[in-house]
Amino acid sequence: MSVRNVLIVGGGFTGLTTAIALAQRDVRVTLVDKAPAWARVGHGLTIQGNALRVFKQIGVIDEVLAVGQPEEGLTLTLANGHVLAETHTPRTGGDDLPPTIGALRPDLHEILVAKAESLGVEIRLGLELTSFETHGDEATSVLSDGTTETWDLIVAADGIKSQNRPKIGITEDRAPSGLGIWRAVTSRRPDMTGGIAFPTEDDGGAFKVGYTPVSDTQCYIFVLCRPQRPDNGLEDWQEVRRLMENYHGEYDALRESITADTFLNFQEIEWIFVEGPWHTGRVVALGEAVHAVPPLIAQGAAQCLEDAVLFAEYVTAEGDLEQQLADFYARRIPRIKGVVDASMQLAQWEQNPGTPDADPERVMNDALLALVPAP
Ligand SMILES: Cc1cc2nc3c(=O)[nH]c(=O)nc-3n(C[C@H](O)[C@H](O)[C@H](O)COP(=O)(O)OP(=O)(O)OC[C@H]3O[C@@H](n4cnc5c(N)ncnc54)[C@H](O)[C@@H]3O)c2cc1C
């Protein structure tokens, strides 16, 4: 086995799943995260079948399905309520798993933390990787508490804003996608099964509005919009209501459910795709540190999870680690490129409604069908 003792920097989906998959292969894993404590923050996510397949592989699928709301597809409408189509999401994880589920990010995070801890992963919070040196078949870390330790491998899973990415020698950086997004968790009626609505005439600043059920009574809503929040004197909840004001049918109830007490989040959406090597010596970057896309086919976390398990398989096989890292990278790039290309094409069309030949449903469907075979 190429590695026995690994440091993981970052405890999001990538870091925790990598930690679990390595620990299940008898690797001693330490995970550090800069967060001083795990906070129950974050909104909903659409978790596609291929992400569920990874949750099954690492032995947490029952827990994940218990906190999620299965979905077969989406109702596409115009803002005035006119139904355009009922879509059926491809079963990217195989026929024994739902096509997708909606879930709350903190619920999934808690499941992964509990699994990692049960496997003996040492989690140290409130710490960053200050510097590292890679030499021969070892890497030495200096953490922000001043400790110096030696590992077979260091994994940077510190997300799209990774501070370790440039230290690995990766020159690509995150870039604006031209999109912004508001998100909220709010209540829904049981008959509301998930949808996306597109503007009719005046978009009011919103490219589209959608919602995904995350429990029998709750859903998360997103408003995809321009990347700058207008300085219009409105409070956040008022601004989201304004963006949704031309959206009717189910969206009337959703808009009304947003109040001054609703937890809202606005962010500009960035992207990155590192097509050059992801490692230098014994330090490697994974997950959103090297690939992140606008969430238009909801594959971000799924691709991070796929990275994690495949990576653990490669680096725990017999053989030369340098070759294993190169082979892992070569295997991942074409699959992730398909997701990046589709997501960025969709992002372009979102910003340029009425583009001749735009066919978002086909691009989305083709991109998901390409993910049905295991990675
Ligand atoms: C608006 C939006 C909606 C999305 N919706 C979906 C969706 O519906 N479905 C889907 O599959 N994906 C979705 N995604 C993508 C998904 O959220 C990401 O792909 C995934 O969370 C990335 O996981 P990660 O572990 O690589 O990074 P992160 O989740 O960013 O985790 C990085 C971790 O590293 C820690 N960290 C950062 N810097 C340091 C440091 N210097 N030292 C130590 N620790 C550090 C952070 O505290 C964090 O815990 C969405 C993304 C966005 C932006």
Keywords summarizing the entry:
375 residues, 2 domains, six-stranded mixed β-sheet, FAD/NAD(P)-binding domain, globular
Walk me through the structure:
It is a single chain. By secondary structure, the protein is an alpha+beta fold. The chain has 2 domains: 5-73 and 101-174 and 270-369, FAD/NAD(P)-binding domain (3-Layer(bba) Sandwich); 177-269, D-Amino Acid Oxidase, Chain A, domain 2, CATH 3.30.9.30. 30% of the residues lie in helices and 30% in strands. The protein has 9 helices and 20 strands. Strands 6-5-14-15-16-13-17-20 form an 8-stranded mixed sheet, sandwiched between helices. Strand 14 and strand 15 form a beta hairpin. Helix 2 (49-57) runs parallel beside helix 7 and helix 8 (321-351) packs antiparallel against helix 9. The longest helix has 31 residues, at 321-351. The radius of gyration is 21 Å and the shape is globular. The model has no long low-confidence stretch (mean pLDDT 96). The structure holds flavin-adenine dinucleotide. Flavin-adenine dinucleotide (FAD) is lined by residues 9-15, 32-35, 45-46, 51, 128-129, 157-159, 163, 181, 269, 287-288, 295, 298-302, 304.
Give a concise summary.
This protein is 30% helix and 30% strand. It is α+β, with helices and mostly antiparallel strands and 375 residues long.
